[in-house]
Amino acid sequence: MAALERPDQAHGHDEDDPGGSAPQEASVAPGRPRQERAQATMAAIVRAAATMFAERGYARTTLDLVSVEAGVTKGALYFHFASKHDLANAVIAAELDTLRADAAAVLELGRPALEAGILLSGVFTRKLTTDVVVRAGVKLTTEELYSHLDIGAAYEAWSVLYDDLFARAVEEGDVVADLDPAMLSRFLVAAFTGVHVVANAVGGDADVYARVREMWTVVLRAVVVPERLPLYKDLPATIRPA
Question: Which residues lie across from 224 on neighbouring strands?
Answer without folding.
Answer: 175
